[in-house]
Design goal:
Layout: E1 8-12, H1 15-26, E2 38-41, H2 44-52, E3 58-61, H3 67-80, E4 85-89, H4 90-95, H5 98-106, E5 111-116, E6 121-125, H6 146-151
Parallel strand pairs: 1-2, 1-4, 2-3, 4-5
Antiparallel strand pairs: 5-6
Length: 152
């Protein structure tokens, strides 16, 4: 059975990899359903191109080295998307330093490393522990309750 990446967040570090993955699963010429993939990264020009090519459902700017930017991403995803998990290019994840991996492991409890071979992609669950905090898009922590805003 093929891995379903419906309503997943893809972390874009290598745009060629991201475009290949999105194209493999959501090429509008071949797919009978629209893309449900959300992508986050800092190369806005490439993300917009993927949106116009209908390879992704939505895109978000995020500087993954800045906790405020990641926290804003988590809030946006919590409010506007039902993210089921996060996808990382295996190479990018393995090259990340400890601080970067902490941020990545905070995004969602369901995280997968993705590898590309000549004809397909393979997905493996991430064994590193997940963290639930202000950087997590699937928890209420990512949401800013109206009651907190009213106190200011």
């Amino acid at each position: 059975m093929a891995f379903k990446i419906n309503n997943f967040l893809l972390i874009d570090v290598d745009n060629d990899f991201s475009r290949a993955l999105a194209g493999h699963y959501f090429d509008s010429a071949l797919a009978d359903t629209p893309s449900t993939l959300v992508i986050a990264g800092s190369n806005m020009r490439q993300l917009v191109k993927m949106m116009f090519d209908e390879l992704i459902k939505d895109y978000c700017y995020c500087d993954f080295e800045n906790e405020i930017s990641v926290s804003e991403l988590a809030s946006y995803l919590h409010e506007h998307h039902n993210i089921q998990g996060v996808l990382f290019n295996r190479t990018d994840y393995l090259l990340a330093d400890e601080k970067q991996r902490f941020i990545y492991n905070s995004l969602h409890k369901n995280r997968f490393l993705v590898s590309q071979n000549e004809s397909d992609f393979t997905f493996s669950p991430l064994a590193d522990p997940a963290h639930s905090n202000h950087l997590s898009c699937q928890t209420d922590i990512a949401q800013t309750p109206l009651s907190l805003i009213e106190f200011n």
